[in-house]
Structures
1.
Amino acid sequence: MMACIMTLKTLGRYLLAILTLSLCQKVHSQAAFDFFDPDVDLCDNRPNPMDDGRPQLGRCDVGRFPICDEDKEDICYNRKPSRDHFHPVTHQHLYYIQYDRVFCYPLSWGGCSSCTPGRYCLSEKSCVLMEQDYPCEQWF
């Protein structure tokens, strides 16, 4: 009887480990489509971002992002470079998210351009406009 209980406990841990791994892989694969960090990413919070003028950069209101069908789509933020804001250390353009440029794309696409133009530096959690010769440890 004791052996059966031990076997069931071991089996339960095994199944839990498989379920956890499966969920982690799903989250990781979704995160590979595009990245969003509420502590790093900035959004243009003007009432009408289509108006000309300087963007009002601030923390993003995630309620303004579209809701994607997680079985078929994933979100892409399509960050764009600011003409007026620059990173204080690298002097690269600061990229920001404009709510009307955030879209849901089919998962079959396998990814999207996180930075338009430019490339996402995963290790720095930012977009880089002039990527050639830029010392990024890990590009996305």
2.
Amino acid sequence: EEIKDEEDKIRRDRKEHIAQLRSEMEDKLAQVERECESSIKKAEKRLSENKVNNKLQLKQLEEAHNKKVEARKRAFGKELDGLTADHERKLKELAGGLEEDERETLAAAARAKAA
């Protein structure tokens, strides 16, 4: 009887120890799950912030690019206007020179006829 009581006590102690270990493991598992959920929420928040920042940076880059393109267009337009003005001036000079040459040629022809 005494041996049986001792065996029962050992079984009860073992069951209690197993239950205690199970409880500790469940507590640790719950803690790890909470930490994981917290880490996931933080990562999701950072990801969301990064998406917003990336969109903002993209918009800023696009605006800067558009400003550069417009500035280049204006500079090219001014340069083109300057070249066009130079060409027009040179054409007028050439036309004036041709008119002068033509007048001289006609005057020379008239003198040659008169002579």
